[in-house]
Amino acid sequence: MKAPLTVSSSSSTLFNNISIRKMSISPFLFTTLASIIIISILYRSNSFNCLFEQRMRLTTASITRSSRSAEKRSDHGELPFVVGKSEGGAECDVFSGRWVKDELNRPLYEESECPYIQPQLTCQEHGRPDKEYQYWRWQPHGCSLPSFNATFMLERLRGKRLMFVGDSLNRGQYVSLVCLLQSVIPENAKFMKTFDSLTVFRAEEYNATIEFYWAPFLLESNSDNAVIHRVPDRMIRKGSINKHGRHWKGADIMVFNTYLWWCTGKKMKFLEGGSFDDENKTFVEMETEDAYRLAITSMVRWVEKNMDPEKTRVFFTSMSPYHEKSGEWGDEPGGNCYNQTAPIEDPSYWGSGSRKAIMRVIGEVFSESEIPITFLNITQLSEYRKDAHTAIYKKQWIPLTEEQLGNPVSYADCVHWCLPGLQDTWNELLFAKLFYP
Predict the structure, then answer these.
(1) Where is the Trichome birefringence-like N-terminal domain (predicted)?
(2) 411-430 pLDDT, tens per residue?
């Protein structure tokens, strides 16, 4: 049974007055006033409220469907951290742009001028016949990157520690930054030393250090030896970030990365009991995305506990892509980055090596951080650079077989990057975000 309509005292008085005086007003005016009163009564009635609520439910359902559709589209389309051309925004997205040839201003230094480049990255020294990969400059849509200024950066780093933490790709970015800075420092006022997992470059005049710490998973793992770490069965210890984190304390600027070592093609193993060398150790297996989320969450919690946002800056470099399937960018199948001399021109290109699910994990975890973490989104711009890898032009630590020598594609390194080259751009982006946020 429907609830009876109720009339407020003010509405009842108004209705009575109209009834008493109905002979003295025109029928048109009476009809108009009566309509207003009826609408006023209905507005307060349950039936009107139900109608209003039904409309709200329909509207909410429509919004929910639209939201779900957007989520569904994001599974296959543009992601929060995947760059695309910015349209109409007040700020310029420096990660969205294109590569342009600039032989006048590139490279930013010569390979022979920087004694700190590892032999795995000195492509010219190891016989690369072309230098085209050195001449490309990243041009954001709608703006330009600030020019890298070594003296300016060193002055801003005076008395400070800038630390890179992660794997060999982060080490490549570290070496690139050292090369960008070292030329303005007198020879007797700079040095680089390695202490187990920690490598330190010191600029004496500025009382500044630029450091790299080897921790490919950020958490403790059986791959933590900075030299001997090519273990076939990778394993990580849960809740162990402090094992490495105690070496990071006191840094003023942190640049983290971790991705490559998670690409095993199988589930990740987390040690629960015993040591990595124990025969009777206990462990659990986790899907890669779940394991990665655990590690990134540990990193964020460590940052929240140990970093002062008033004094420190924290960065995270996104996935560095690899180019091992030439068919993905339109070349004949069976090839890879070997003998590639130009970037990919398709602005929407995204290779199979960069997992969008991992990008989502980063976005979700970082969004809950209590301390700002600047995301250096180098993935898409690096996806275009199939030409910039070391390929076969590097020091080979293991002698190559006759079969390999006869087929360079078989041993080309399509993961790491020549220096000078692409990773200098990563540091130009770091420079921009650090000093021109």
Answers:
(1) 91-144
(2) 999 999 999 999 999 999 99
Catalytic residue among 167, 224, 413, 424: 413
Q: Which tokens is 123 given? A: 């492509």
Given 244, 247, 323, 416, which residue is catalytic? 416
Q: Is 270 in contact with 282 (CB distance < 8 Å)?
A: no
At 83-99, the pLDDT tens digits run 333 334 457 899 999 99
* Interatomic CA distance for residues 169 and 156, integer angstroms: 25
Q: DSSP secondary-structure letter at 4? A: P
Residues 6+ apart with CB under 8 A from 378: 95, 317, 318, 320, 425, 426, 429
- Does residue 413 carry a catalytic annotation? yes
Backbone angles phi, psi at 383, to 5 degrees: -55, -35
416 is catalytic: yes
Give yes or no for a cis peptide into 107 (omega within 30° of 0).
Answer: yes
DSSP state of 221: B
Please, which residues bridge with residue 161 across strands?
A: 209
Taking alpha carbons only, the member of 194, 237, 196 closest to residue 217 is 237
Q: Hey, what are 70's tokens?
A: 């957007």
Which pTM does this prediction carry? 0.80
Task: Extract the tokens encoding 382.
Answer: 């690096």
168, 298, 318, 326: which one is catalytic? 168
DSSP string covering 390-410: EET-S--SSPPPHHHHT-GGG
- The label of the residue with tokens 């990134």 reads 296
- 279-308 confidence digits (pLDDT tens): 787 889 999 999 999 999 999 999 999 999
- Radius of gyration of the chain from its Cα atoms, rounded to whole angstroms: 31
